[in-house]
Specification:
The complex is a heterodimer of chains A (151) and B (450). Chain A is mostly beta strands and 151 residues long. Chain A has 2 domains: 54 residues, no CATH class; 78 residues, RNA polymerase II/Efflux pump adaptor protein, barrel-sandwich hybrid domain (OB fold (Dihydrolipoamide Acetyltransferase, E2P)), CATH 2.40.50. In chain A, 10% of the residues lie in helices and 40% in strands. Chain A contains 2 helices and 11 strands. In chain A, the strands form 3 sheets. In chain A, strands 4-11-9-6 form a 4-stranded antiparallel sheet, with no helix packed on it. The two termini of chain A are 26 Å apart. Chain B folds into 3 domains: 85 residues, Rossmann fold (3-Layer(aba) Sandwich); 70 residues, Dna Ligase, domain 1; 237 residues, D-amino Acid Aminotransferase, Chain A, domain 1 (2-Layer Sandwich), CATH 3.30.470. Chain B has 450 residues and is α+β, with helices and mostly antiparallel strands. In chain B, a hairpin with a 5-residue loop joins β12 and β13. The chains are: A mainly beta (151), B alpha+beta (450). Chains A and B meet through loops of A and β3 and α3 of B.
Chain lengths: 151, 450
């Protein structure tokens, strides 16, 4: 969540004569109280609704980072230990590139384990958003390989 | 020297092997399941790789993922620990076919001793005493009945592909035999993949006494004396000690020689244990051979001064054994207490959960081998044993007193443990006198609420 507005608020209240301050809005609530012996107020953050609605309730980030990971995005992870290959053979075209739309069951890559080539298939219909592993890199069980945006 | 060794195991034994490798200057590669991300062996190893989800079948028994990891990490050898793949002959074969040294005996040795009926017959032929029973698996009930009547009831029906106390049924009389055979076969098939069963005479209140053997790859085999492991719950050992209170030097020599003969009969190499049952007259009978390092190896280490896991690695490297039989001496008395995350007040129900505080005991003669630490969450998928407390004293009396002090110094909070059970055991007069047998816990009624 973006803390900039809250930091500004804390500074504002600190510099004023207000001793206690409370603000509640959709998605969060903030309460502050100045301790009389202490110069700085003590902020207490209490998010209201839990994670189910959080992605929609969060304010959009100001700095243009990748969109928050939510249900729209699926990670394809390695189901085995081996070497990740993007193409069926050296020099051949990769199975997928970023931006490609893939169907359920479509081969995304190969994981080679002890000379056996295993085709890794997509579980969803989606667009390839990110490829997280380099060609010929060893991968562990459960290691994320691709991020797909579900379509 | 090996440059890198992969430890195909978890928990305290993985930590033990990592320690031995460190002492030898060998880089360690750990494997772990998703449930073991925070495990101690993962933190201690130089490299660590995830090989599967929580359940053992998909991770610690996942040979393709483990071998793939071994090849990608470029290891020279694999130490299988105990349990899991330690006695899977085909795993030893797969290691060999990849040019990776399996730290243990050869695959065919594992196979021969893995079939309990074949093992029995093999050692019998080299003059190792075996319990009266069938010479191989019994296929026909009539054959089973004839054997049982010959050796006398009660008899024990055991799975040929079993071991470690699992897959056994008692038949008290000829009436019970037919049904017991049926159930035993069915259980054997389910648990071990083979319905083959063999029959043995059931001894009354025997002691479980096993002999540690050490063999190099040049045929030089010695024994390191015995361990008494009679304190068992449901055929699982809970407390082990060396030497056995019941074994005289003469009996030790005869049992040791028999164990070495058994090992030689299968061209044994590396560390192994030959298990015997000893009756009240001091007769001993071969039970089975475990072709791996055992949980209770530290009690032998304590009384002989020999680091068994380091020796396993050195033997696998092709080093000859540096001792002859006459070089082996024993000093003092050692007792090991397995520390399990179990609730002794609820029939030892496993008690996984987060250990909020773990403070091990220390001092002279106190060794604590553990796979846990303060803040560690014990996963529910695996054996409840997370540590071993090994006590060494000048004699058994000092070991008992020191054990009580150490168990009281051991602080474990957040999970239930069997420590209260161990304290109760130490107070038992028969235990103090060393009057042990495999039915000790039930006989002395130690499994009651505290």
């Amino acid at each position: 969540m973006n803390l900039d507005p809250i930091k500004e608020l804390i500074e504002l209240i600190s510099n004023s004569d207000i001793d206690e301050f409370e603000l509640e809005t959709e998605g969060f609530k903030v309460a502050m109280r100045k301790a009389s012996a202490v110069a700085q107020p003590v902020p207490v953050l209490q998010p209201v609704e839990q994670a189910a609605r959080a992605p929609e309730a969060a304010p959009p980030p100001a700095d243009g980072l990748a969109p928050p990971r939510d249900d729209r995005f699926v990670q394809i992870t390695a189901p085995m230990v081996g070497t990740f290959y993007r193409a069926p053979a050296p020099g051949a075209d990769p199975y997928v590139k970023v931006g490609d739309v893939v169907e359920v069951g479509q081969t995304l890559c190969i994981i080679e384990a002890m000379k056996l080539m295993n085709e890794i298939e997509s579980e969803v219909r989606g667009r390839v958003v990110e490829i997280l592993v380099e060609n010929a890199e060893p991968v562990e069980y459960g290691q994320p390989l691709f991020v797909l945006e579900k379509l | 020297m090996f440059e890198k060794v992969l430890i195909a195991n978890r928990g305290e034994i993985a930590c033990r092997i990592i320690r031995a490798c460190r002492e030898l200057g060998i880089r360690t590669v750990a494997i772990y399941s998703e449930a073991d991300r925070e495990a101690l062996h993962v933190r201690l190893a130089d490299e660590a790789y995830c090989v599967g989800p929580g359940p053992s079948a998909k991770s610690y028994l996942n040979i393709p993922n483990i071998m793939s990891t071994a090849v990608l990490a470029g290891v020279d050898a694999i130490h299988p620990g105990y349990g899991y793949l330690a006695e899977q002959a085909h795993f030893a074969d797969i290691c060999a076919s990849h040019g990776i040294k399996f730290i243990g005996p050869a695959a065919h040795t594992i196979e021969r001793m893995g079939d309990k009926a074949v093992a029995r017959e093999t050692v019998r032929q080299v003059g190792v005493p075996t319990l009266p029973g069938s010479s191989g698996p019994v296929s026909v009930d009539a054959e089973a009945l004839a054997i049982a009547e010959d050796i006398g009831f009660p008899v024990l029906i055991k799975a040929a592909a079993g071991g470690g106390g699992k897959g056994m049924r008692i038949a008290q009389s000829r009436d019970e035999l037919g049904k017991a055979l049926q159930i035993a076969r069915s259980e054997a098939e389910t648990a071990f993949g083979s319905p083959a069963v063999y029959i043995e005479k059931l001894l009354e209140q025997p002691r479980h006494v096993e002999i540690q053997v050490l063999a190099d790859e040049y045929g030089h085999i010695i024994h390191l004396g015995e361990r008494e492991c009679s304190i068992q719950r449901r055929h699982q050992k809970v407390v082990e000690e060396a030497p056995s209170p019941a074994i005289t030097p003469e009996l030790r020599q005869r049992m040791g020689e028999a164990a070495v003969r058994a090992a030689r009969a299968v061209n044994y190499a590396n560390a192994g244990t030959v298990e015997f049952l000893v009756d009240r007259e001091g007769n001993f009978y071969f039970l089975e051979m475990n072709t791996r390092i055992q949980v209770e190896h530290p009690v032998t280490e304590a009384v002989t001064g020999i680091d068994l896991v380091k020796q396993q690695i050195l033997i696998a490297l092709g080093e000859p054994l540096p001792w002859r039989q006459e070089d082996i001496t024993w000093r003092g008395h050692a007792i090991e207490f397995r520390i399990n995350a179990e609730d002794p007040d609820r029939n030892f129900l496993p008690s996984p959960g987060r250990i909020t505080l773990l403070s091990p005991p220390g001092g002279p003669g106190v060794r604590f081998d553990s796979g846990a630490y303060s803040g560690y969450a014990i996963p529910p998928y695996y054996d409840p044993m997370f540590a071993k407390l090994i006590i060494h004293g000048r004699d058994r009396q000092e070991a008992l007193v020191r054990a009580r002090a150490a168990l009281m110094d051991l602080l474990v909070e957040g999970v239930r443990t069997n420590v209260p059970f161990h304290l109760r055991l130490l107070e038992d007069e028969a235990f103090q006198r060393g009057e042990l047998s495999t039915d000790f816990i039930a006989r002395r009624n130690l499994v009651s609420a505290s």
